[in-house]
Amino acid sequence: MKLIKNQGASFILNVCLVVLTLVSIITYAVNKALPYFIEANVSAQIVPFLILALIFELVNVALGFTSFKSNKYIVLVCDVLSIVTTFFLIGAAIYFINDRVDYYGYALFSDLESGNQVARSGCIGAIVSTAFMLVAGFVSVATNFVKKVAE
After folding, report:
1. Distance CA 17, CA 15 (A)
2. CA 101, CA 65: separation in Å to the nearest integer?
3. CB of 41 closer than 8 Å to CB of 142
4. Is the separation of the CB atoms in 114 and 70 below 8 Å?
């Protein structure tokens, strides 16, 4: 328990980042399976970007509990992984927006789908999923500026 209490803001932000990324993956999977988006184009990069971001975040959290965390090379690797994680999360959100932007226009702003509640709820779910990806990306940026507490 003392080990967890000694963790700094960077650790807390990394744990929040893991949770946000998991929620992003879940909301993306749910949105992809909705009836309105069954035949929608899906970028092949979104899932690998989210999975790699999650793996890099878990590596950062795991290394915080090891004796290697004071090694300057490990710290450098963790910093690089944090920067790459940011690009993966924001990149996944950009690809997802690119895939869904036409559907947003049809379902939310045109007369073509004006009474279609399935389309509207699907697009709102896609917006929520994109928001989680973007918030995770911004939290990742914040973790890059917070230094790890040295013991």
Report:
1. 5
2. 42
3. no
4. no
pLDDT > 70: percent of the chain: 91
Look at residue 19 and tell me whether its pLDDT is greater than 70: yes
Q: What is the pLDDT of residue 2?
A: 55
- Does residue 151 register a pLDDT over 50? no
